[in-house]
Specification:
The protein is about 15% helix and about 35% strand. By secondary structure, the chain is α+β, with helices and mostly antiparallel strands. It folds into two domains: about 80 residues, no CATH class; about 110 residues, no CATH class. β13 and β14 form a beta hairpin. About 20% of the residues are buried.
Length: about 260
């Protein structure tokens, strides 16, 4: 019986189905070693510590997924990676954060961004392996996702002084009304005869209001409604300027 070549470029469409893309996630966490019979012994450890071992190859696996679906499982994708027939390309998280937070906020940014916003900025406590030892460090990604209800002021006075005094120091503030999260979208294509899974960010949107103090510095009032992508909202927080979803550029520290 002729064996199925699951990793042929002719089967590209199959690898781009949602079900198959799910099988291509976190493959580097699976351990693999060659058996004497030419197949691979694949070891997978679940979050609760349970260890599973499977015998896998490019054309078959004894796991339930392959037996039931007869389509490549995550273990077979791991074998294909080892055989240089499949690659996963991902943006690596950086050990260098997007800003210096040593004073308790993002130093040099136009708006006050604090550690409570780290998750919105895709700053996560990430496990890193070195010399077989695992430690956790803060790392930076680009999957920005700000949520409704968040408010940002352009001065620390808003957080330290009584409100009546703080108003005298505020130039403008932002309040998020609606938002949609950023998604990581994967797509498989053929490069030099190899199947490659590459991911890109599909940024969600942020709808927010711009506030300024009135002339008497008694209260803030809404002066505009804006919508931009999540990555442009980060630029706004950092530089005070951004491009909205319609392609219009704004600088809140030059506009009246």
């Amino acid at each position: 019986m002729q064996k199925q070549n699951f990793f042929s470029p002719e089967l590209l469409a199959m690898h781009n189905t949602n079900e198959q893309l799910e099988q291509q996630v976190a493959l580097s966490s699976i351990q693999i070693q060659k058996n004497n019979n030419g197949k691979w012994l694949v070891t997978e450890t679940e979050g609760n510590g349970t260890i599973y071992k499977y015998h896998s190859s490019l054309d078959s696996c004894d796991c339930d997924y392959f037996v039931d679906k007869h389509q490549p499982c995550r273990h077979m994708y791991r074998v294909a990676m080892k055989e240089n027939l499949f690659k996963v390309m991902r943006s690596k998280r950086s050990d260098k954060l997007i800003a210096d937070f040593s004073d308790g906020y993002a130093i040099g940014w136009k708006f006050i961004v604090r550690p409570c916003n780290w998750q919105n900025l895709d700053i996560l406590y990430t496990p890193r392996r070195k010399d077989k030892h695992v430690s956790h460090v803060w790392t930076q990604g680009k999957c920005y996702s700000f949520t409704p209800g968040s408010v940002f002021y352009d001065t620390m006075a808003a957080y330290k002084l009584p409100w009546a005094e703080a108003l005298k120091h505020i130039t403008c503030s932002l309040q998020i009304k609606e938002s949609s999260p950023t998604d990581i979208i994967s797509h498989v294509y053929v490069e030099n005869g190899i199947l490659v899974n590459r991911a890109h960010y599909e940024y969600g949107t942020v709808k927010f209001d711009l506030y300024r103090p009135n002339e008497q510095y008694e209260r803030e009032y809404v002066v505009g409604h804006y919508t931009c992508q999540q990555d442009e909202f980060v630029k706004l927080l950092k530089f005070g300027k951004f491009t909205d979803v319609e392609g219009n550029c704004h600088n809140f520290f030059e506009e009246g």
